[in-house]
Every structure is written in structure tokens, then in C-alpha cells.
Design brief:
Layout (H helix, E strand, L loop, with lengths): L1 H7 L6 E2 L6 E2 L17 H6 L3 H15 L7 E2 H9 L7 H13 L3 E5 L2 E2 L10 E4 L1
Antiparallel strand pairs: 1-2, 3-6, 4-5, 4-6
Helix pairs in contact: 3-4, 3-5, 4-5
């Protein structure tokens, strides 16, 4: 039924989770309150977006501003910039920051030089200014 609704155009467009930047696909159980849906999961709702997350976003944008147009950085570069020696614990938060920036239209996410869907990409992410 959901496939039929989507084909007929009855289902609203997908959204982006404000915490992790992943795509939220419309579900029939959310039909009444789709406009209020902001998070893809309870974990994202609990986590939200912290000051540390904003620092990672700023680090990504600052690192990209230092590079020539078209040059890329890795998501781990931002984690290293913010976390120093303990950067590994910031690896996933840096990926979330990159997905949020991509959803906002500020950066592109690539792997092996090709654009990828940030919601499903696995492994290191290459980031470049849009």
C-alpha cells in the first residue's frame, strides 16, 4: 500500500533527521503528525544536537575553507581537529555533523570521488564544499 501511495504522490516527501542527518522516510503511522516528526529514532531524540556537534560542523567548514575549491577532507579530519588525541570517540559525531551539513546544502559527501547517499554510506567520507 505504501508503494502505491508513493507512486500516486499521496505520501509526503522524505525528511532529514535534525540530529544525525539521515533520511526519514514517511510511514503511515506518522500520517497524523508528519509535520512534527524531526528525529529518525528515540536515540536521536535523546541525543539531539550538542555544542560539541556544532563544534564539529564548524571544524568541517573551517577545514574546507582552508582548501582550494574542489578539494576534499575526510570526516576524521574534523574529529582530529576538535578531539585531538582522543579523536576516535568523535568519529561518529563527525559523520553526523557531515550529514547535517550535506542536508543543509553546504557540503557534498563523496566516496572514491563519487557522490554518495549520506544516509547509507559506510566507511570514510570525503567532504567538499558545494
Amino acid at each position: 500500500m505504501a508503494h502505491r501511495q508513493r507512486a500516486e504522490g499521496a505520501a509526503p516527501a522524505d525528511k532529514t533527521c535534525v540530529a544525525c542527518g539521515r533520511r526519514i522516510q514517511w510511514r503511515a503511522k506518522w500520517a497524523r503528525d508528519w509535520d512534527a516528526v524531526k528525529y529518525c529514532s528515540d536515540a536521536c531524540r535523546r541525543r539531539g544536537v550538542t555544542e560539541g556537534d556544532r563544534m564539529l560542523e564548524a571544524a568541517i567548514l573551517a577545514l574546507l575553507a582552508q582548501r582550494p575549491t574542489g578539494a576534499t577532507i575526510l570526516d576524521s579530519d574534523a574529529a582530529r581537529e576538535v578531539g585531538g588525541e582522543d579523536w576516535q570517540q568523535l568519529a561518529e559525531p563527525a559523520r553526523r555533523a557531515a550529514r547535517r551539513l550535506s542536508a543543509a546544502g553546504q557540503i557534498d559527501i563523496l566516496q572514491s570521488g563519487s557522490m554518495v547517499d549520506a544516509s547509507t554510506a559506510k566507511g570514510p567520507l570525503q567532504l567538499r564544499r558545494r
